[in-house]
């Protein structure tokens, strides 16, 4: 079985408008299970801040429906207030989950800023936009794509998480898929059942799967194996629709789903999807190479 990555922290994107408390609670729960701290990052979008200082910039004032010059001082005050609200909310949820939290304010492009802060031993948590106004821009999609293009593990949070209990599901196409080790560890820590969805040609080797699960401290009676010959998003959704899972784990290239499939699974199932791609024999943080 592939070695489980030693994660050091979960980095949470807290840009304005991304403060769904249920999603934040789901991220905090994963951090607790993996025994890592949360670093909340509030990014002031440089393009918005810069545009406010342009003499021709205008904003629509409601309900009067009147276009007026953008007030840069008011915008700065609103961003400061939003950052403080995000900080308080993060600390409150972190305290409830019993995990350490830190908070930073950055200014720049949200996508490149979030991705640049992470290394292989980090998890980036990004959420789908929940409000209609958020979906008018491509910021959420750019942050998600930048995270998935980085070397970090990515936690995709749905806009409206629907449950916090139930089995953990792992999607694999081979027994040595590193997603199996991570999912088994999470199931053992949370005392949840593990559903192994084997999306590959041929039947899965149940003995090998149970051996991998036992290595993480998960007894065989808490492991269910589901053979799924097809690797389409629709087939995965159909297989998982009635299972009431709390988390889906997959590796980035594990079952070769098309781009955007992981985000679609998270949104349509209403549960977080953890996307990992750790290389074999990853050293622990701070350990010399080859140790």
Helix-strand makeup class: alpha/beta
Low-confidence stretches: 54-67, 280-291
Largest sheet entry:
10 strands, mixed
Widest sheet: strand ordering:
5-2-1-6-7-12-11-8-9-10
- Number of folding domains? 2
User: Got a strand count?
Assistant: 12
**How is the CATH topology of the largest domain named?**
Rossmann fold
Report what the structure shows:
- By secondary structure, the protein is α/β, with parallel strands linked by helices.
- The protein has two domains: 130 residues, 3-Layer(aba) Sandwich (Rossmann fold); 102 residues, 3-Layer(aba) Sandwich (Rossmann fold), CATH 3.40.50.620.
- The chain contains nine helices and twelve strands.
- The strands form two sheets. It has a ten-stranded mixed β-sheet, with helices on both faces.
- Strand 9, helix 7 and strand 10 form a beta-alpha-beta unit.
- Helix 4 runs parallel beside helix 5, helix 6 packs across helix 7 and helix 8 runs parallel beside helix 9.
- It starts with 8 loop residues before the first strand and ends in a 15-residue tail after the last strand.
- The C terminus is likely disordered.
